[in-house]
Amino acid sequence: MSLYKQLVDTETKAVASRQSFGLAVAELGASNPKIVVLDADLSKSTQTQHFAKKFPDRFFNMGIAEANMIGAASGLAQTGHIPFAASFACFLTGRYDQIRMSVAASKANVKLVGTHAGVGIGEDGHSQMGLEDLALMRSLPNMTVFQPGDDWDTRNFVDWSIKHEGPVYMRLTRQGLPLMRRSADAKFGPGIWGVLNPEIMNENPDVVLMASGGVLDASIQAAEILSQKSLKVCVVNANWIKPIDEVFLRKACDSKAKLLVTVEDHYDVAGLGGAVAEFTSTLPAPKRLLRIGVAEFGQSGSPKDNYEYYGFTGEKLSKKIAQALG
Amino acid sequence: MGFQWPNETISSETSRKAIRQAILEQIAAANSGHPGGSLSLVEILASIFDGHFNHDPKDPLKSDRDHLVLSKGHGVPALYSALSFMGYFNAQELSKLRSLGHFLQGHPDRNHYELMEASTGSLGQGASVALGEALGVRLSYASKKISRLPRVYAILGDGEMQEGQVWEMLMAAPKFELANLICILDYNKGQIDGPVKEIMDLEPLADKIRAFNWNLHEVDGHNVTEIKKALSACEISSKGKPHFIIANTVKGKGISFMEDPTAWHGAAPNAQQLSDALKELNGNSEPFGRLI
User: Fold this and answer.
1) Which phi-psi region, left, alpha or beta, contains residue B134 (left: φ > 0; alpha: ψ -120 to 50)?
2) Considering only residues 69 to 98 of chain A, which have any Cβ-Cβ distance to chain B shorter than 8 Å?
3) Which residues of chain A does B212 touch, with a Cβ-Cβ cutoff of 8 Å?
């Protein structure tokens, strides 16, 4: 059996994490009347439309005015509600000062939802791509940041974020994400990554490959190609961006692995790769880290062509990793 | 002796003098702050807190309380003074304004003081938070029978009106028919770099606000009777037009040498200036004692 088929449930249809979110929040809205949703004229894209249809009194379309939407979400939180404020990641986190002051520094229990992450959105091009959102959100002291790898992750995080008192940012994709295979007792909680083939960690891995969001699929394909060259690759669904999985990273740095790799559809600055570099550099024996991300502005092109161009295919990722191994 | 608040209603002339003294003394103690835009706010705050604000200093976070967001966060010495006057904390705390770790931060900071409804100081944002609170309060009480819907006040500065976000808020509140939202503009005509008229004129402001579909009231912002009358005229209900009060004020009001659109925006009085100012307020007596 191929590594890919071991790790990915190829029988189940891929679902975009924006879709998983939209359905989850509409479902949870039934049992929790405190949940309210705000959108800025993108409810059909962010998938808050499901909640809007079910709970019109608790859905607020704020028009194309994201700054006011973020402030209003803060006010709703201060009066005891649990607001989800959604827009494209770039437009939402582009209102950084509003998030900095009205949400983070106001201790507001606001759930920020940024969809259309990365170059993976394709044709609409650079202006619609969230490429710096993780960097921005990570820098705020009390912000929790999460990028789900699949439907299971997204649903679990939406549920977790409702129970968690404090601001969160979730980064969601336009494109479908295949479902990962998990053991029945898989744990979900802050800073616990999904290590997809944990047994490798006990067998002296050559590479620890941590990928987040839309590029997880291509990263597993890369691991498959590398495994055919007899390299042992541990693949990680690095979904928690803040807090990151420090327990796992200690283990990875203690292992015999020659190389740590991070892959993300985000600028290669201050996202997952940055978070891993910051933490592992504090360890007594940090490992060499290859940070793979987007190093230039995004552009139009089909999602497939974009992932090919920016190097997010199994083929290209595996080449880069093999090269770094020397 | 320390400082003692007068035992009078907050909007009385004596009380307002005490508030002005507290503003000046706390800014002098911190050796920094914004006297001009704090002094212009005194009558606005005193009027709201004189019977138009449901709250309880012994139960500051009670669920049916009214809300107030000071969107022009730099005027916070006036708000701190009013809160202390009403018994939220001892006046002596005011002398620690802007000191490290203290809850009286230089601008309202919810991370340090929970009673602040929003951390403001980055202009243009607070009124949006107030709008969200008005939505939230209405939603909370949608299915409950209550005699009085909690109201939400947002206090804006005139320079702040230049922020685009304020106009997003002005568009949104009428859409949601937030008749429990009262925005009050402290129109003191000055900002850091000069008169508002020169930097970025707001006029014709009343027409603009009306055109955005608000109930508009215009008052002398230093006349308590007029402000209170306007507040009473704001019909608070779960649906209808939101309320906007243009309060025409004087920056630095009450201290003749501070009554200037720009000079005292962000300058603390030195010892001599403080002494001159207090003399102008209270003559040669010290009816409230001294903070510092």
Assistant:
1) alpha
2) 70-81, 83, 97-98
3) none
Partner-chain contact B67 A102, CB within 8 Å: no
User: In which element (H, E) is residue A306 found?
Assistant: helix A303-309
What ipTM was estimated for this complex?
0.97
* Sequence-ordered strand ranges (E) for A122-164: 144-146
Let me know how many helices (H) and strands (E) chain B has, helices first.
10, 7
Q: Is B104 helix (H, G, I), strand (E, B) or coil?
A: coil
pLDDT, tens only, A103-151: 999 999 999 999 999 999 999 999 999 999 999 999 999 999 999 999 9
b/e for B44-83, b at 16 or more Cβ within 10 A?
bbbbbbbebbebeeeeeeeebbbbbbbbbbbbbbbbbbbb
**Average pLDDT, consecutive stretches of 10 residues, N- to C-terminus, chain B (292 residues):** 94 98 98 97 98 97 96 98 98 97 97 96 98 97 90 98 98 98 98 97 98 98 98 94 98 97 94 97 96 94
Whole-structure pTM over 0.90, yes or no?
Answer: yes
Q: In what order do the strands lie in the sheet with A289-294?
A: A194-195, A233-237, A207-212, A259-267, A289-294
Residue A203 known to be catalytic:
no
Which two tokens mark A128? 């619609």
In tens, the pLDDT along A278-324 reads: 999 999 999 999 999 999 999 999 999 999 999 999 999 999 999 99
Single-letter residue type at A281: S
What DSSP state is assigned to residue A208?
Answer: E
Give the strand pairing for A233-237 and A194-195: antiparallel
Percent with pLDDT over 90 in chain B = 97
Beta carbons of B245 and B41 less than 8 angstroms apart? no
Q: Cβ of A60 and B129 within 8 Å?
A: no
**Which of B109, B127, B136 lies nearest to residue A105, judging by beta carbons?**
B109
| Rounded Cα distance, A72 and B135, in Å | 8
CB contact under 8 A, B137 and A101: no
Distances (CA, A) of B249 to A126, B19, B44, B154: 47, 16, 9, 16
